[in-house]
Amino acid sequence: MLQAIEIQKIIEANLNCNFIKVNGDDGTHFEAVIVSDVFAGQSIIKQHQQVYSALGNMMQSEIHALSIKTYTPDEWSQKNNIKG
Amino acid sequence: MTTNARIKKLIDDNEVLLFMKGNPTFPQCGFSSVACQALRALDVSFETFDVLQDPEIREGIKVFSNWPTIPQLYIHGEFIGGADIIRELYESGELAEAISKE
């Protein structure tokens, strides 16, 4: 069964992540939260395309459902209300 | 007509078009269902295309949009995104803006 940690490792290996967490324990449905400098200035479509691209052909095969949330480091700080 | 030409025509002919699995009454996938719910909540008219009825479009739209999953939303000919993005833009109000923009 596909594990969330496997997906996380593959994304991490192919995309420069400041933070990443992939959840999901049923082998088919996963949720990814990814924070990366590379997202800065990019449209949300482009951000998600980069995550898909990091996963290569896994999106066409093993992964049935992956929900993605992307943040730039700034957005992530604001969301978590971290003071600079 | 090639698959790409068919997709182009579908997008050109429909101001708000959702490529989905199933239809709004009977969505065949949770993500397609979420996308429909967001559009319905905006009370706008939209068209849907059931990719399960057309394997060529189902695979072709993934290449056309450079996007590996269904659903996919097009507004005024522009690719908006998949279910996660549709939900985010709905919540931020940007989806309504995109639709009302000419």
Summarize the helices and strands and which ones pair or pack:
The complex is a heterodimer of chains A (84) and B (102).
Chain A: H1 4-14, E1 19-23, E2 29-35, H2 44-55, E3 65-71, H3 73-79
Parallel strand pairs in A: 2-3
Antiparallel strand pairs in A: 1-2
Chain B: H1 3-13, E1 16-20, H2 30-41, E2 47-50, H3 55-65, E3 72-75, E4 78-81, H4 83-92, H5 94-100
Parallel strand pairs in B: 1-2
Antiparallel strand pairs in B: 1-3, 3-4
Helix pairs in contact in B: 1-3, 2-4
What Rg of chain B, in angstroms, do the CA atoms define?
12 Å
The helix content of chain A, as a percent range, equals 25-40%
| Count of individual beta strands of chain B | 4
Question: Per DSSP, what share of the residues of chain A sits in E-state strands of 2 or more residues?
Answer: 15-25%
Spans where pLDDT lies below 50 across 5 or more residues of chain A = none
Summarize the largest interface: chains and residue counts.
A-B, 12 and 15 residues
Q: Averaging pLDDT over every residue of chain B, what do you get?
A: 96
Oligomer: heterodimer
- CATH class type of chain A: Alpha Beta
